[in-house]
Specification:
With 261 residues, the protein is an all-beta fold. 0% of the residues lie in helices and 54% in strands. The strands form 5 sheets. Strands 1, 2, 4, 6, 7, 10 and 11 form a 7-stranded mixed sheet that branches. Strands 12, 13, 15, 16 and 19 form a 5-stranded antiparallel sheet that branches. The radius of gyration is 24 Å and the shape is elongated.
Amino acid sequence: MLIRSAVTALSGALVLSALAATTAAADSGQGDTHIVQVVVNGGKPVVVGATGYKTFTLSITAADNSGIKDAYGLVYHGSFDNPDGNAGPGSDTPMTCSPDPGSETTSTCTTDITIGPRTAHDNSTAGIWHVWTSVDAYDFDYINLDSAGTFSMKRSARLTADASPEPVAAGKALTVKGTLTRANWDRGTYDGYAGQKVKLQFRKAGTTTYTTVKTVTSGTGGALKTTATATADGYWRWSFAGTGTTGSTNAPGDYVHVTES
């Protein structure tokens, strides 16, 4: 059976030590125990701000003909043998497992993981993270996987929007400014994010849907600036789709009243 690594943490806090897995803890198994699915944060990227902590749920569904006894899991960045960031309840703390409705062979096991910037990881660890898991069945079958699944850990982004003049005459030019910033996990600040495609969007008053007017590239310090023609009362905002390492974000809409020209 697996020799579990001595990776532990209280209340799902960050584990800064290496996974310390032995050769016996690499991919291995016995019998018919298998992983059905692994879900992190409900299938959405884990987006972490410049300060504070982010708690998300790790869910592992596994099956065995005798039923699932217990499961263990944690998340890490980099290689399994030499991770540069990892977090979880630890390989000696079991997850909470419950049989799936109507099934005697399949269970879903969950645990909450809390991770934060600076103490948790640095900017270089934004991107793809892996899930390590070990699952035991009642008949002593088991499965150990170094990477049972992957998910995205991203730096959070922020946007501002300011449209002027207010009010503006119909048919006249409106200038919309803003700033795109993203979390710097190394320093605990939000810094300008240059060279990114950002959409200028408009929502007419009384409606619920924003429409893209044009796309602008953020400049020095994440600065955004462009002009548009004012046609009706409504809200102007900037919208950023995100990248592989940075989360998406929308600026709060800035309302502009349009007068008769």
